[in-house]
Amino acid sequence: MQHESWRQRIVCDPAIHHGEPCVRGTRIAVSVIVASLADLSIDDVLVQYPQLTREDVQAALYFASEAAHTTMVA
How many helices (H) and strands (E) does the chain have? Predict the structure, then answer.
């Protein structure tokens, strides 16, 4: 997956999961995927969420990386 192609997989829609960034076509939030990766491997996450693809998980990580660059933490 190319770094910028995450934009085609991650959506923020007020009608889906209160506008929280999710994988397109699912209600699985980026935050859930990233938090899951703290304890699980990508393969384990894919087993836990069979509707996701490896590219979806990578897109969630790219999104989180972009968000971390633009978010100031106090």
Answer: 3, 2
Classify domain 3-68 by CATH number.
1.10.10.10
Q: What does pTM read for this prediction?
A: 0.86
Beta-strand relationship, 10-11 and 22-23 = antiparallel
pLDDT single digits (tens) 35-44: 999 999 999 9
CB 45 within 8 A of CB 52: yes
In 3D space, the residue among 21, 30, 36 whose CA is nearest the CA of residue 60 turns out to be: 30
Q: Of 25, 68, 61, 64, give the one whose Cα is nearest residue 45.
A: 61
The confidence score (pLDDT) of residue 61 equals 95
Tokens of 6: 């995450």
